[in-house]
Amino acid sequence: MPAFKLRMRTSAAVLAGAAAVTALGAGLVPATASAASASPQTIAAQIVPANQLSSFSQIIAHESSWNVTAVNPSSGAYGLAQALPGSKMATHGADWKTNPTTQIRWALDYMNERYGSPNNAWAFWQTHHWY
């Protein structure tokens, strides 16, 4: 495939993805995404303020690769935000082990309480490689 056509298709895909993220940031859920099947990233886009979402996403990507059941074999830290102990997330729901919404709400509250915001938490993470 010529590079020009590939770039046009890639650009179209990027624009479509950006439109979807913008819609999510506005509190809209695409018709194809249901609450039960939404990815953790989609759920986060509905919960985390738009001006904090990039930082929140960076932390979660580095901590767990967006794996809801991620476990650190050394420390036992658990979930999207790598809570230690994982049971701390029970303050936000009994389903903390498997529910990305519960984990995201807990993580956002943790970042806000400890650092003031996900943006501040990400700034700390970049310096220390933990938060």
Topology:
Blueprint: H1 3-25, H2 40-47, H3 50-64, H4 100-115, H5 118-128
Helix pairs in contact: 2-4, 3-5, 4-5
Task: Describe the protein in words.
The chain is mostly helical and 131 residues long. It folds into 2 domains: 32 residues; 95 residues. It is 56% helix and 0% strand. It is built from 5 helices and no strands. Helix 2 packs across helix 4. It is globular. The N terminus is likely disordered. This is Transglycosylase SLT domain-containing protein. InterPro entries: Lysozyme-like_dom_sf, Transglycosylase_SLT_dom_1.
Biggest sheet: strands, sense, closure?
none
Q: What's the number of extended β-strand segments?
A: 0
Give the strand content: under 5%
* Structural class computed from helices and strand pairing: mainly alpha
Mean pLDDT: 82
Low-confidence stretches: 1-34
Which descriptor suits the 3D outline?
globular
Total helices: the number is 5
The share of residues in helices is 55-70%
Between the first and last Cα atoms, what is the distance in angstroms? 44 Å
Give the total of domains.
Answer: 2
Order of helices and strands: HHHHH
- What value does the Rg take, in angstroms? 16 Å
Domain Transglycosylase SLT: 52-123
InterPro entries: Lysozyme-like_dom_sf, Transglycosylase_SLT_dom_1
Organism: Kitasatospora putterlickiae
Protein name: Transglycosylase SLT domain-containing protein
